[in-house]
C-alpha cells in the first residue's frame, strides 16, 4: 500500500539573546511561516508539514507523534527508517540521542522494541544490531574500530548491505544501550565556531529484527510459517555547513566538504523522487555512500519519517529556508512498504533454530538464567561464524577477479609481443632489401632500363622510385608514338618484337611497405633504423613485463 513519507519540523530554542530586527519564524498548528517584524507574513515562505514542533517541545513528544508508529511497524515485519536533517548546530544529534533527562529517538526506540516484543507471545524474535559512521565518504564500524573503509554490497537475499560490519545479537534494551555508548566513543566529533561538539560524520544505527511464529498447539515451531526479517535504520546526519560561519580550516574544512557533498546528493535524490514515478528520471543513489545505504528507505519498501531541525535566529534564515524546502520535497515522496517474509534459509533465525532447540534439550534441567545466557552465547558465536564465512567468500571472489585480470593482462602482453615481433622481422627484411637496392648485382641484366642517349628526342624513359606507391593501373599513355620508335624498342629488348595490340593494363596491386610514412626518396634510412631500434626496445620491455606477470601469478 502506497503512503507518503512522514515529515516534521522542529525549531530548537534560540541561543542568541538578540531580538530579531527584521524577520522571525512563526509557528501556527502544523505550519511555519516567515514574518516581518510587525507580524506581516512574507509571501511564498509558508510551509505545512505533518507536524511542526516549537522550542518547548520535548523528545518524548517528537517520538510519540513522529517515530513510534515506524518502530512498531518494524517489529511487525516492515522496514523502517527515521533520520534527522538540518544545518549544523540545529539540534539533530540532541533529537536522535537526547540527554539523561530527555532520551532521544534512538534510546526510546530501543526500549519500545523490546517492550513490544514482550507483549507478543505467539512469535519468537531474534534481534541483532550494528552501528556505523560515514566519515569523509568512508564507512567505519563503531563497534569494532579495526573495521575501516568497509565496502557496500548487494545480493538478492540480503539486499543492500555493508560487508564486514560487526553485528551483535542482543536480548534486552540494556545490552543495546551499552553497545551504543561504546560506539559513541569511536565517533568523530569536532569543534567549530557554531558548535562546540559538532558531528563530523553521519551515523546509522541498524536493528535487524527476525521473528517466527510458534505453533501454540504443540508448543513447537511451525515449520510452514515464513520468517519475517525487517531492518530498522535510525540515522543521525551531520549538518550542512557554511565555511564563513563555521570558520572551518584544515581537517575541519575537509570534513565539511564531504558532509556538504553527501547532503547535496541526498537533496538531489529527494528532488528526483518527489517528481513522481511518471516524471522520475535516473535516481543517483550511487553518488554517495549515504544514499546508497538508505536507498530502500528513501524510495522503496520502507516506512520512513524525517525530522528536519531548524535554527530560529535571523542570521540563519537562508539555511532554514533550504531545510524547509528539502522537507517540502520529501513530503511528496511515496513509498510502498510491505511485510518482509523469507521462506529460504537466508534468515539467521531459521539457520540457528535446530542448534538452539538441541541446546534447550541439553540444558532442560538447568536454571532458566543459565539457559538464556548459553543460548545468547551460542547465537553470538554462530553470528561471528556467519560473518567470518561471508568475509572469506568475499576475499575468495576478490582473488578470483584479480586472477582473471592477471590472465587477461598476460594475454594482452602476449599479443603485443607477437605484433612487435612481426613488425621487427618485417623491418629486418626491408632493411636487407634496401641494402640489395643500394648495390645491384650484374646477374639481373635480362632487361635494362635504357638511358636517354639510346632514345630519340621525342621519347622518355621513367624509373619508379623505390618508395613511391604503386598506381592502380599501368601508366601507359593513350598514344605510343612519343615513347619510343620500333628500332629503339628492338634495341631495348634484344630483338624481341612486341605485339602492341595485345598489350593490356596491369591489374591493381596492394603492397604495404615498411615503414611507409617515415622514409622518403630525399632522406636517408637513419630515421627508419631508429624506429626499428625503438621497436626492438619495446619488444624487450614487453617480454620483461610478461615474465614479471607470470612470476606474480605463480
Write the layout of secondary structure elements.
Layout: E1 2-4, E2 6-11, E3 23-28, E4 31-36, E5 41-48, E6 51-53, H1 59-75, E7 80-86, H2 92-97, H3 105-118, E8 123-135, E9 138-141, E10 152-155, E11 159-162, E12 168-170, H4 173-185, E13 189-190, E14 198-199, E15 202-213, E16 227-236, H5 243-246, H6 251-273, H7 289-293, H8 295-299, E17 303-310, H9 317-330, E18 334-336, E19 341-342, H10 348-362, H11 368-438, H12 486-492, H13 526-553
Parallel strand pairs: 2-6, 2-17, 7-16, 7-17
Antiparallel strand pairs: 1-18, 3-4, 4-5, 8-9, 8-12, 8-15, 10-11, 13-14, 15-16, 16-19
Helix pairs in contact: 1-3, 10-11, 11-13
Written account of the structure:
With 554 residues, the chain is α+β, with helices and mostly antiparallel strands. Helices cover 40% and strands 19% of the residues. It has 13 helices and 19 strands. Strands 2, 6, 7, 8, 9, 12, 15, 16, 17 and 19 form a ten-stranded mixed β-sheet that branches. Strands 3-4-5 form a three-stranded antiparallel β-sheet, covered by helices on one side. A hairpin with a 3-residue loop joins strand 10 (152-155) and strand 11. Helix 1 crosses helix 3 (105-118) and helix 11 packs antiparallel against helix 13 (526-553). The model is unreliable at 219-224, 441-456, 458-464 and 511-522 (pLDDT under 50). It holds the Pfam family Kinesin. Residues 421-444 are annotated as: Disordered. One of its GO terms (cellular component) is condensed chromosome, centromeric region. It comes from Gossypium hirsutum (Upland cotton). Residues 4-333 form the Kinesin motor domain.
Amino acid at each position: 500500500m502506497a503512503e507518503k513519507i512522514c515529515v516534521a519540523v522542529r525549531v530548537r530554542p534560540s541561543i542568541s539573546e538578540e531580538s530579531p530586527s527584521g524577520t522571525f519564524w512563526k509557528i501556527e498548528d502544523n505550519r511555519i511561516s516567515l514574518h516581518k517584524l510587525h507580524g506581516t507574513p512574507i509571501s511564498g515562505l509558508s510551509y505545512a508539514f505533518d507536524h511542526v514542533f516549537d522550542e518547548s517541545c520535548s523528545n518524548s513528544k517528537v517520538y510519540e507523534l513522529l517515530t513510534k508508529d515506524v518502530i512498531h511497524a518494524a517489529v511487525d515485519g516492515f522496514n523502517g527508517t527515521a533520520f534527522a536533517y538540518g544545518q549544523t548546530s540545529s539540534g539533530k544529534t540532541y533529537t536522535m540521542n537526547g540527554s539523561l533527562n530527555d532520551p532521544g529517538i534512538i534510546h526510546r526506540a530501543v526500549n519500545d522494541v523490546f517492550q513490544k516484543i514482550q507483549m507478543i507471545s505467539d512469535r519468537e524474535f531474534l534481534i541483532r544490531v550494528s552501528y556505523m559512521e560515514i566519515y569523509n565518504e568512508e564507512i567505519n564500524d563503531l563497534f569494532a574500530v579495526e573495521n575501516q573503509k568497509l565496502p557496500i554490497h548487494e545480493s538478492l537475499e540480503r539486499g543492500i548491505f555493508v560487508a564486514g560490519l560487526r553485528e551483535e545479537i542482543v536480548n534486552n534494551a540494556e545490552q543495546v544501550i551499552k553497545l551504543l555508548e561504546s560506539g559513541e566513543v569511536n565517533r568523530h566529533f569536532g569543534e567549530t565556531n557554531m558548535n562546540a561538539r559538532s558531528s563530523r560524520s553521519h551515523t546509522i544505527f541498524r536493528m535487524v529484527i527476525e521473528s517466527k511464529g510458534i505453533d501454540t498447539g504443540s508448543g513447537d515451531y511451525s515449520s510452514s510459517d515464513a520468517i519475517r526479517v525487517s531492518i530498522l535504520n535510525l540515522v543521525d546526519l551531520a549538518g550542512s555547513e557554511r565555511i564563513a560561519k563555521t570558520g572551518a580550516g584544515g581537517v575541519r574544512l575537509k570534513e565539511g566538504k564531504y558532509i556538504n557533498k553527501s547532503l547535496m546528493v541526498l537533496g538531489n535524490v529527494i528532488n528526483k523522487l518527489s517528481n513522481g514515478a511518471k516524471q522520475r528520471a535516473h535516481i543517483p543513489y550511487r553518488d554517495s555512500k549515504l544514499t546508497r545505504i538508505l536507498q530502500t528507505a528513501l524510495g522503496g519498501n520502507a516506512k520512513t519519517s524525517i525530522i528536519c531541525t531548524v535554527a530560529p535566529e535571523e542570521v540563519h534564515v537562508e539555511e532554514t529556508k533550504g531545510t524547509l524546502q528539502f522537507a517540502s520535497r520529501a513530503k511528496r515522496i511515496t513509498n510502498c512498504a510491505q511485510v518482509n517474509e523469507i521462506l529460504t534459509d537466508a534468515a539467521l533465525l531459521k539457520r540457528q533454530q535446530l542448534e538452539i532447540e538441541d541446546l534447550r534439550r541439553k540444558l532442560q534441567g538447568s536454571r532458566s538464567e543459565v539457559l538464556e545466557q548459553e543460548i545468547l552465547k551460542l547465537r553470538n558465536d554462530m553470528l561471528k561464524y556467519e560473518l567470518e564465512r561471508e568475509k572469506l567468500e568475499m576475499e575468495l571472489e576478490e582473488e578470483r577477479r584479480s586472477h582473471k585480470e592477471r590472465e587477461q593482462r598476460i594475454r594482452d602482453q602476449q599479443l603485443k609481443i607477437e605484433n612487435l615481433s612481426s613488425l621487427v622481422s618485417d623491418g629486418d627484411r626491408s632493411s636487407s632489401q634496401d641494402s640489395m637496392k643500394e648495390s645491384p648485382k650484374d646477374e639481373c641484366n635480362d632487361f635494362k632500363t635504357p638511358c636517354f642517349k639510346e632514345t630519340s628526342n621525342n621519347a622518355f624513359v621513367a624509373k619508379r622510385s623505390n618508395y613511391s606507391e604503386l598506381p592502380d593501373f599501368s601508366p601507359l599513355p593513350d598514344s605510343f608514338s612519343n615513347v619510343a620508335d620500333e628500332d629503339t624498342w628492338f634495341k631495348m629488348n634484344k630483338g624481341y618484337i612486341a605485339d602492341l595490340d595485345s598489350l593490356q593494363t596491369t591489374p591493381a596491386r596492394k603492397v604495404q611497405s615498411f615503414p611507409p610514412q617515415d622514409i622518403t626518396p630525399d632522406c636517408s634510412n637513419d630515421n627508419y633504423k631508429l624506429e626499428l631500434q625503438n621497436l626492438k626496445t619495446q619488444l624487450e620491455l614487453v617480454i620483461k613485463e610478461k615474465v614479471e606477470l607470470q612470476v606474480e601469478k605463480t
